[in-house]
Specification:
With 309 residues, the protein is of the alpha/beta class. It contains eleven helices and 17 strands.
Amino acid sequence: MSWFDVAGNGLAGAGEVTMLSRDEVRKCLTNVDPVGVVRETLADHDRGVGLLPAEAYLRWENSQGAYTRSIGMPGAVRSSYGITTIMEAGLLSAVRTAAVSAVGVDALGYGGAVSLAVVGCGAQGRMHAALLAERLPSLRKITLYDRSPEAARALAATLPGISAQVCSSAREAVSAAEIAVFTTTMDVGYVEPDWASPSALLINVSLGDLTDAAAVYIDGVDLVADNPRRPLGRLMAEGRFGRPGSTGPARPLDGTLGGILTGRHRADGVASPYVVLNPFGMGVLDVALYAAVSAQGREEGLGTVVHLG
């Protein structure tokens, strides 16, 4: 008998996990309301329900010299504390992020918007365009910009029934919209205040893009404050922004989405030059959405069970 056979005797069994493919995740999502899950979880987080530890961040350059990162975002919400299902997460990450933006659109009073801009037409841009087009009943026009015109044209082709215009610059796209979503890879600001329509909502999903704002709302204060890689986190570290309700020389953030949903913070409506929503991304949102998809998968008998004992 080998040493690891001896050492392994008496260890608790590891049980089993279920694996869900992307197609199975997509099927589960047809019966899950991701916006509802995110809205409930944001409110729970504001009430102190759940656990949100610091994220684990690893950055490196790949073989092409491009910026690459791996982020571990743990969290616990209600009865979901660990991983019981292994699933394709790329789709779910895009869905979760777009769902946060959709909650923000509603909570900040932009549900009646007739025009939308998407700057950055990759996976996140496509998901935002699809979800917001479905949830904004008055939407009539979408303006699109990407450094790759082909990507913008490909996204436009997926939006039947809505006037979709591919623009030659980010400024052109943003200036035509009541809501503008930035899903680029930029980590520096370049959008000037006079680009946006007066009192527009700018959703800054990317690391950078924006240079100024009149009202700023985020999803989670602690994660932003502890992360100087985010421009807003860097501004908080420099003492230029403070937590909502704080006093002192730093300008306080206007609120969190969870605080608005629970009534602890106010959404005062339009502001000049524009309102900013910075959805940082919280692990509790991933855990809640993954748990809902996992439960739906079990209900439908989907997935491959892997026994670990």
